[in-house]
Amino acid sequence: MSRDVRVAVFRPDDERLADAVELLDSLGATPVPDPMLAVEPTGATPPVDGDTAPDVVVLTSKTGVELLASAGWSPGSATLACIGPKTAAAARDAGWTVALVPEEYSSAGLVAALDGDVHGRRVEVARSDHGSDTLIHGLRDAGAEVTETVLYRLARPAGSGQSAVMAAGGELDAVCFTSSLTVENFLAAAEERGVGGEVVAGLNRAVVGTIGEPTRETAEEFGVRVDVVPDHATFEELATAVVEEAAPTYHG
């Protein structure tokens, strides 16, 4: 495979970005790292005792688990549900018992897994400020009393957007969008850098991958054609599928 397969990745600038770059490099692609999310902790933690203690706590990200663990929080007697294997692994590393990981790593998948078990129970959702409404509405529709704790905010880092300039100029072969917010921040960065009018056309000449259906829907709302949505919502599957889709262009 040619090293000309340039793939933009937008993970936060921590071990997730380093792991993503390493993975793309191992797949034979040329990574173009351009973080579109920065984590800003709020310091908030869910209640664990007293009259407001939840019966079920839902954690949606490894970041959230790590922030809670560093604050000395634990789920107490609550049942712990985690979206995705990495979130669950981080929770177990913190010494917590994980009772549920849905087969589909998404808000809809978790609602489906909990449906029938949460009617009349208190469910605490602890996550970022950009969590999907699907989770809250779905749990309430299932009869749960739902509260939410915002563990961290997600902001667009200053200086982001070089990949948008590259996309507008036809210099990117593929992109990996890992959330609706990364799509929105990428397009906002394009506007900020003066290439908002060209960037969608540039993306539509490239291979666009999204980590799940909500992210695909967001991209398509902005006129971006999505080529790849992996069966499982993991970055590994997304990156592998995107590189495989982009690579044939470079075979002789």
Describe the protein's architecture and organization:
This protein is α/β, with parallel strands linked by helices and 252 residues long. The chain has 2 domains: 6-37 and 158-250, Rossmann fold; 40-155, Rossmann fold, CATH 3.40.50.10090. Helix content is 38%, strand content 18%. The protein has 10 helices and 9 strands. The protein has helices at 15-26, 62-70, 85-93, 107-114, 133-141, 162-168, 180-192, 196-204, 213-221, 235-246; strands at residues 6-9, 30-33, 38-41, 56-59, 79-82, 122-128, 145-155, 174-177, 207-210. Strands 3-7-6-4-5 form a 5-stranded mixed sheet. It has a 4-stranded parallel sheet with strand order 2-1-8-9. Strand 6, helix 5 and strand 7 form a beta-alpha-beta unit. Helix 4 (107-114) runs parallel beside helix 5, helix 6 (162-168) packs across helix 8 (196-204) and helix 7 runs parallel beside helix 9. The protein is elongated and about 55 Å long. The model has no long low-confidence stretch (mean pLDDT 93).
What is the structure about, briefly put?
The chain has 252 residues and is an alpha/beta fold. The protein contains 10 helices and 9 strands. The chain has 2 domains: 6-37 and 158-250, Rossmann fold; 40-155, Rossmann fold.
